[in-house]
Amino acid sequence: MAVSQMIGARIQRREDPRLITGHGRFIEDRTLPGMVHLAVVRSPHPHARIVSIDTAAAGAAPGVLAVLTAKEFHTVLSGTMPVAPAFAPDKKYVPPRFPIAEQEVCFQGEPVAVVVASERALAADAVDLVHVEYEPLPAIVDPEAAMHPGSVKAHTDGPDNIGWDTTFAGGDIEAAFAKAEVRVKERILQQRLAPTSMETRGVLAQYSPFDERLTIWLGSQNPHFIRFFVSMSMGMPESAVRVVAEDVGGGFGGKISPYPEDYLVPAAAKLLGRPVRWIETRTESIQTTTHGRGQVFEAEVAARRDGTLLGLRLTQVLDLGAYHGTFGAFQACAGLMAGGVYRWEAVEARSVGVLTNKVPTDPYRGAGRPEATHVCERMVDRLAQELGMDPAELRRRNFAREFPFTNNFGLVYDSGNYDGTLDRALELADYPALRERQAEARRAGRLVGIGISTWVEICGFGPAAPTAGATGGIALVESAQVRVLPTGSASVFVGTQAQGQGHDTTFAQIVADTLGMPLETIELRHGDTAEGTGFGCGTYGSRSLSVGGMAVQQAAVKVREKARQLAAHLLEADPDDLVFEQGRFAVQGSPATGKSIQEVALAAYGGSLPSGMEHGLEAVSYFDPSNWVWPFGAHVCLVEVDPETGAVRIEQYVGVDDCGTVINPMIVEGQVQGGVAQAIAQALYEEVVYDGESGQLLTGTLLDYLVPTMNEIPDMTLDRTVTPSPVNPLGVKGIGEAGTIAATPAVINAVCDALSPLGIHHVDMPASPDRLWRLMQEARP
Amino acid sequence: MRVPAAFEYERAESVPHALALLARHGSEARVVAGGHSLLPMMKLRLAQPACLIDINGLTGLSYIREEAGQLRLGAMTRHAELLASALAARHFPLLGDAERVIADPIVRNRGTIGGSLCQADPAEDLSAAFAAAKALAVIEGGGGIRTVPIAEFHRGPYETAVAPDELLTEVRLPIRPGAGSAYEKVERRVGDWAIAAVGAVVWLEGDVVQDVGIGLAAVGAPHFHAAEAEAALRGRAPDAAAIAAAAALAAEHARPTADQRGPVDYKRHLVGELTGRALRRAVARARGREG
Amino acid sequence: MPHPLTLTVNGTGREDAVEPRLLLVHYLREVCGLTGTHVGCDTSQCGACTVLVDGAPVKSCTMFALQAEGCRITTVEGLAPAGGGLHPLQTAFWEQHGLQCGFCTPGFLMAATALLAENPDPTDEEIGRGLEGNLCRCTGYVNIRRAVRAAAAAMRAGAEPAATAVVGG
Question: Which residues of B touch C (CB under 8 A)?
Answer without folding.
Answer: 1-9, 11, 32, 35-36, 39-40, 43-44, 52, 54, 56, 80, 100, 103-107, 109-110, 190-191
